[in-house]
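Listing S7. Sequence submitted for prediction.
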Amino acid sequence: MAGSGAAGLGAKRWLLGSTTKSRPSSGICPSSASAPTGTLSTSTFITRPSTVRGQRERNVDGWCIPCHDRGFFPSAGGSISWPNGTRPKAREGLGVQVTERAARVSRGYAAVLAAVLLASLAAKEETRESPLPEGVAPFDAKPLMDKVAERIQTDKYRFAVLGDARHAKTFPALVSYLYETVKPDFLLDTGDMVQAGNGKAGIGYWHKLAKESGDAMRQIPWWQALGNHEMLGGAPPKKTRMEDDEEDDDDQAASGGAAEAANFRRFYNLEREYYSFTFRNAAFIVLPYRYPKGESEEWLERELKKASAARKHIFILNHCPFFTVGNKSKQDIPNEQTSVTQLFARYSVCAVFSGHDHVYYRTVRDGIPYIISAGGGARVYTVTRKREALPADVYYGAAPESEKPKKDADTGKSVTPKKRYVLHNGATGQPDRITADPGQFAVVVDVDGKDVQMFCVTAKGETMDEMVLAK
């Protein structure tokens, strides 16, 4: 190394890698208010501190020695590239050799600095990975429900049931109609409000939901069921992305595990994905995805037994239906009685509300009304399983025959006809009503003491179905 003694130190050499360069204008020594001037052609700047191996090697030539002795730089970990493959030797008496005490102090500073940096990064990562935008509190229904309980002092109230919106551009119009015209006291959501809400990749969809529906969810309580799309991972939404891409509507795997539902729980401030609550003369039981089993089925029976003993109307909220006429497979929805549906019959459940299969469907099995209310705005599905409906059932969905390709008489080419949508009401025996445009809908339930009535309404204010649930 060129230069020695006081002259070498006075030049405050900086090691800049393995090549000789001038000190950059931003290279300010931490121990001085200003850096020296002049071209430094004799050394390079250490970008990584040298490995401490022994007392004689505890010199870090090239670091500003006063800074190292004061503990500004760590003395262990990493390696150095030396110019021309030669490592400067320690020169005793010149203050170049770092003492053992200075090395220990240096390592202490490094440990503290590392801890502070890690804590800072962890805090930033926690904010970045939260399903809630920065500064937004969870959309917790419980505080709002307390206000509803203060306002309503009788057993006369109204709630709405909807689901499967998945960022549909038409969803705000449905919510506006409900808020301005129907005016429910609270709302039950059957799930699938986001496109893919699991993990880091799904964070953007929760932020999107907060932006789209956050104001509405702050006005009245929204009680949520966990859907499969809340547990799916996916790329964050693009601004130009169509919210209801049909290729994303097919069944996608989701096990319903606790880890997959973490964002869902944090967004709605829930301890777990299945829960219950009571209001006035009714009990509401929200089931886990896909269906209760094992411990959760035992929990369900306890809740049913408790509500029945209290002589309350019992309403069930679940994402996956127990019966359907839509396009979901038998593997997904068997359309068979199970140990869970037997519990509903045993404890005289008032109604079971579900979503998932994007149709409207109302059926009564073993004396229990099962209702699919999945008209929040995602693509309306085809009623491919309508043959499994009972004579008195009511359903609305895309007509199967409308999707069959037909040969054009002029060109001879196969053409898929435009979809048509059918409303079938087996309860009234009226002719099927066919429409060209899909409709959004929600179920509204009026409770007046012992009397409970349900009706299904569209965003245009039309009534598609109505039924007395209890009297």
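Caption to Listing S7: primary sequence and predicted structure tokens for the chain studied. The chain has two domains: 5-128, 141-470. DSSP finds nine helices and 17 strands in the chain.
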